[in-house]
Amino acid sequence: MKTILLRPEDYTRSPWKNGGGTFTDIAGAWRADAAARDWSSLLWRFASTPIVAPGPFSHMPGIDRLQMVVNGRGLVLKSPTQEFDEREPFTTVRFTGEMEIVTALEQGPVEVVNLMARRGAAEIELVALREPGERRLAAGTHLVYAAHGDCRIRLDGEEFSLSHEDTLKVELAAVSQLALVSGLAVLGSVRLLG
């Protein structure tokens, strides 16, 4: 097991693919043989971003996306064929980067976290840990994000305290046990394929 505590000052900023806003990049991975870290070489990315006005989402062919509101409420994602309801915070929605999506903000601006992955390169999961308790973590990369105030977790018996917006990046070679001790956290999990 390898752990790295990432703090907000470690995060970088980058523009949305369509230029309509800015991501706060928390963690990610790109193909090792790529000349540049860009959308075409992306394997996975964990980021937060404000959505302050209704508008279109970026077109991201080949990318699977998970999203969750962590601040504010009332977000709905609308595509020509369906709606994704994120009106309540800490609800995860899954959609593909090819979908034409426009946001509706029913109660003002929101802050969301996104976990994105190249289809076929990784499997991803995004869940809110709201109640103290344990859960099994598979081998892979896990990101525990203190999205809403401070929190404490226990990982295989070792305790970690995270301040608001800190992220504990955990690399696991084998199954492990994670427990939320106090507070609220968002857990992003990535398992590379192949």
Q: By CATH's scheme, which homologous superfamily of the largest domain applies?
A: Jelly Rolls
Radius of gyration: 16 Å
By DSSP (H or I, 4+ residues per run), the number of helices equals 0
N-C termini distance? 20 Å
Main sheet specs = 6 strands, antiparallel
The fraction of residues in strands falls at: over 45%
Shape: globular
- Strands of the widest sheet, in order across it, are 2-3-4-10-5-8
Highest CATH level, the class of the largest domain: Mainly Beta
Mean pLDDT comes to 94
The sequence of SSEs as H and E is: EEEEEEEEEEEEEEEEEE
CATH architecture of the largest domain: Sandwich
Pfam families: HutD
InterPro entries: RmlC-like_jellyroll, RmlC_Cupin_sf, Uncharacterised_HutD/Ves
Organism: Bradyrhizobium frederickii
Protein name: HutD-family protein
Task: Briefly summarize what is shown.
With 194 residues, this protein is mainly beta. The chain contains no helices and 18 strands.
Characteristic key phrases:
194 residues, mainly beta, Jelly Rolls, 2 domains, six-stranded antiparallel beta sheet, five-stranded antiparallel beta sheet, 18 strands, RmlC_Cupin_sf, Uncharacterised_HutD/Ves, HutD-family protein, RmlC-like_jellyroll
Can you walk me through this structure?
InterPro entries: RmlC-like_jellyroll (IPR014710), RmlC_Cupin_sf (IPR011051), Uncharacterised_HutD/Ves (IPR010282). This is HutD-family protein. It comes from Bradyrhizobium frederickii. It holds the Pfam family HutD. The protein has 194 residues and is an all-beta fold. The chain has 2 domains: 11-118, Jelly Rolls (Sandwich); 124-192, Sandwich (Jelly Rolls), CATH 2.60.120. 0% of the residues lie in helices and 58% in strands. The chain has no helices and 18 strands. The protein has a 6-stranded antiparallel β-sheet, with no helix packed on it. Strands 1-16-13-18-11 form a 5-stranded antiparallel β-sheet, with no helix packed on it. It has a 4-stranded antiparallel β-sheet with strand order 12-17-14-15, with no helix packed on it. The two termini are 20 Å apart.
